[in-house]
Design a protein that fits this description.
Blueprint (H helix, E strand, L loop, with lengths): L11 H11 L3 E2 L11 H12 L12 H15 L9 E4 L2 H12 L5 E6 L5 H6 L4 E6 L9 H7 L4 E7 L11 H11 L5 E5 L19 H4 L2 E6 H4 L8 E4 L2 H12 L7 H10 L3 H5 L1 H16 L5 E2 L7 E5 L8 H12 L1 E2 L1 E2 L12 E5 L4 H11 L5
Parallel strand pairs: 1-11, 3-4, 3-5, 5-6, 6-7
Antiparallel strand pairs: 2-8, 7-8, 9-10, 10-13, 12-13
The structure holds 4'-deoxy-4'-aminopyridoxal-5'-phosphate and glutamine (GLN).
Length: 380
């Protein structure tokens, strides 16, 4: 059969996690917490199952959960979200992104994508017959080169994808970025896909520039979230998409014959647990402490930190420490030093190699300490 996604290979997260297992390495590669999630939340799912919430939920998501999410978005972002028409619960953030892309893209449409880019974006565009228009973020701060964006807009531009806080770099968008985006899209039919799965994982008291803050932009946007990231349960694969009523209606047309509805007991549990505002409000400082702890330990190694203002991730440069490419280097760190990272070139179609590797610091302190104990043995 002719492949619809030729030369796609296996995602770097799976490749590096398998290598970590094979070499018994500390896995700071794939982004997932290694500590326990809230017991109360687990308990709530257990209770939901025992109380009989075991059949299909509403196709758009459990109504109470959508109501609670709308309240949360009003209180956090002053957003006026109608739970009936503007929110759909999805099996994870990745699915929400895929569905949004599938909702709008036709063959030949162009989508502006910034690289390094989260690994699912480009395959998701291509499978819809659309064309990713790639723009490199400015190294080493990974900010958006807006002049280049303007120069790449064409009559075929259907969508611009943004992601803040950003995976893999931890950079975040500013108010000025939003203004630049607004200037570009105003008066056009360009859609925005805003991947905000790390909305709460933002540090140093920086405000998260959610698209939900901007009613004019939300009209043309699909904003994607993940419960997995907010509640340390990436394996539960539950998320949601927020949009304006007309776009959401189209999104749901795609969703209803793909997934139809999502895991009921976890929706019941999240609806209850969302009342606990502290659980998400303290998340930024909780994860920031991990970033700071990891950076402190890493200062004993020759690796040079880049800025991380959010997400699970901290990138380090190994420039001047090795002539190897970042893939080779990350593989060698796994095999010889027992620590797994992700080579950032994996997030570029042209494998741009700035000699940067990504570490996930959303781990127990002992895991981070064990990894760095091994990395300090690295000598030039
Ligand atoms: N976008 C980005 C940038 C991510 O890092 C992730 C998490 N891997 C997702 C989307 C998807 O999250 P989920 O696991 O809920 O599909
Ligand atoms: N988002 C996570 C990361 O960036 C992993 C998700 C996955 O393995 N697909 O590491």
């Amino acid at each position: 059969m002719e492949s619809k996604l030729p030369n796609m290979g296996t995602t770097v997260f799976t490749v590096m996690s398998q290598l970590a297992l094979q070499y018994n390495a500390v896995n700071l590669g794939q982004g997932f917490p290694d500590f326990d999630m809230s017991e109360e939340l687990v308990e709530l799912v257990d209770q939901a199952m025992k109380k009989g919430y075991n059949q299909y939920a509403h196709m758009n998501g459990l109504p109470l959960l959508r109501e609670r999410l709308a309240e949360k978005m009003r209180s956090l972002y002053n957003a006026n979200i109608n739970p009936e028409t503007d929110i759909t619960i999805t099996p994870g953030g990745t699915y929400a992104i895929y569905t949004a892309l599938t909702t709008v893209l036709k063959p030949g449409d162009e989508v502006i994508v910034f690289e390094p880019a989260y690994d699912s974006y480009i395959p998701n565009i291509k499978i819809n017959g659309a064309v990713p228009i790639l723009i490199h973020l400015k190294f080493p701060g990974y900010s958006i080169p807006w002049d280049e964006v303007r120069s790449k807009i064409s009559v075929r531009t259907k969508m611009i994808m943004i992601n803040s806080p950003h995976n893999p770099t931890g950079s975040v968008l500013t108010k000025n970025d939003i203004e630049q985006l607004r200037q570009i899209v105003t008066g056009t039919n360009i859609f925005i896909l805003s991947d905000e799965v790390y909305e709460h994982l933002i540090f140093d008291k920086i405000q998260h520039e959610s698209i939900l803050r901007y009613a004019d932009l939300l009209q043309r946007s699909f904003v994607c979230f993940s419960f997995g990231k907010t509640y340390h349960c990436t394996g539960w694969k539950l998320g949601y998409c927020v949009s304006s009523p007309n776009l959401m209606q189209e999104f749901r047309s795609v969703h209803q014959y793909n997934c139809f509805s999502c895991h009921t007991p976890s929706q019941v549990a999240f609806a209850q647990y969302l009342k606990n505002e502290e659980a998400y409000l303290q998340l930024g400082s909780f994860v920031q402490r991990k970033r700071d702890y990891f950076q402190r330990l890493m200062s004993a190694t020759p690796f040079k930190p880049l800025q991380s203002s959010g997400s699970y991730f901290q990138c380090y440069s190994f420039k001047g420490l090795s002539e190897e490419g970042d893939r080779e280097f990350a593989i060698r760190l796994t095999k010889e030093f027992g620590v797994t990272s992700i080579p950032v070139s994996a997030f570029y179609q042209d494998e741009k190699d700035d000699k940067v590797i990504r570490f996930c610091f959303c781990k127990k302190e002992e895991t981070l300490a064990k990894a760095v104990e091994r990395l300090v043995r690295f000598k030039v």
